[in-house]
Amino acid sequence: MGKDCSWINTPAFNRIAEEGIFFSNAFTPNAKCAPSRACLLTGRNSWQLKEAANMWCYFPPEFKTFVEALEENSYYVGHTAKGWGPGEAGIIEGMPRKLTGRAWNHVRTPPPTTGISNIDYAANFKEFYEQKPTGEPFCFWYGAIEPHRSYEYASSLRSGRDISEIDEVPAFFPDNEVVRTDMLDYGIEIEHFDMHILRMLTYLEEIGELENTLIVVTSDHGMPFPRAKTDAYIYSNQVPMTIMWKDGIKNPGRIVDDYVSFIDLAPTFLDVAGVDWEDSGMQPSPGKSLNTVFRNPGMNEPFRDHVLVGKEKHGVGRPGDYGYPIRGIFMDDWLYIMNYRNDLWPVGNPEAGYADIGGSPTKSEVLKSRHNLNTSYLWELSFGKRDREELYNLNEDPYCIVNLAEEKSYSGILSKLKTKMENNLKAEEDPRMFGNGEVFQNYESVNKKVMNYYERVVINKEDFHPTWVNATDIETDLTEE
After folding, report:
1. Residue 419 lies in domain
2. Which of 9, 129, 349, 355 has most Cβ atoms within 10 angstroms of its Cβ?
3. 293 with 363, same domain?
4. Global pTM exceeds 0.85
5. Number of domains the chain is built from
6. 79: helix, coil or strand?
7. Any alpha helices (H) in 300-343, and if so which ranges?
8. Are residues 392 and 323 in the same domain?
9. Same domain, 390 and 414
10. Could you report the per-residue pLDDT of 75-129, keeping only the tens digit for each?
11. Contacts for 465 with CB less than 8 Å, ≥ 6 apart
């Protein structure tokens, strides 16, 4: 967001940071939309959520969301655009389950580009609020579709922007005009998202509700580019997060560098609302309320000393629709990753178009890099098979380029991080720690249209590929080692 990035203008996000708290080390446990949102909603890590660890799942009925808990405690709840998904939320008492409350989407407006939704998010929030019973507290989930793929290519340039505004291209991308244009298109979608926040803030201020409204702005995962979204690196799981609550945060304008996880948000919301977790019907959470950070600007102990991350099934594109299981830990500015099935292609098979990563101009450019000896390492970083263990010094290598796991001089830090990670995962009853990781593979998918994609396309030669995979993403000239 604009707080860290000079070429993306986010006045609303910046205002919330200046009048609240900017969390510089906030993370999602799982860098894909549905599992990430499941963690946020339940206060549990994805390996604690059964089917909800996966994309396109049937949401397990035993896991209540904080929105459902607030509604049961007299909160008026709703959302606009994307709540939890993709997947099936299920049925409760004969009615469709609403994990993020009723949808408010009918107010529309002409979008500035073809890649941007025509939902008028701010107007829908205003309508939601105007229908709220007088005096009733509210919870509203603004789930903008932006900056989800796809973008209108070069829409940023047509609006008067220039690729020279971008001061740095991540080291795992080629630095060329196509990539910079794609990044700038991504930036204007974030600016559209931020513009609606600004309108919501203005409305709350006009009606006198801004002071006592807790506002959290974040993203469900990192940028939708190769080696970011769907992986487990710093650009995958670290997310922007800023929180404003004028009546509840002491010493606003702070920057908190402590680790924070999405699993901390649900406990925070129930704590602030005065709803006891034990009485809420929510399942136990390893998360902690951030209210202690809001109220105590001079905390002597860090809020967290680490965060855990991981993934299971993020999509299709391998034989049997198999996932790519990972667990990892961020701690002391290090990242340790365990790739449990590093015999597999990490983002899907080449002949199925590396389907875990959506098609994009940047993806196409990184794929092209394989054919040049000077740039083939970029392809390896995003699409090539990986070592079983990975270790990165984030202070010296923020782009996670140089894997130190095999360096003997770092064996001590690797062992420390691995032990810490596995002890915590065992305490959280992660099935993968007890030899039961296949349970995630066996959960049923709701997306029947793309099931068995690899077999249909590669084996049966069916003329089909998912909408998010470009035909040019498919590479058939690679053979197994």
Report:
1. 308-473
2. 355
3. no
4. yes
5. 2
6. strand
7. none
8. yes
9. yes
10. 999 999 999 999 999 998 899 999 999 999 999 999 999 999 999 999 999 999 9
11. 352, 353, 355, 453, 457, 471, 474
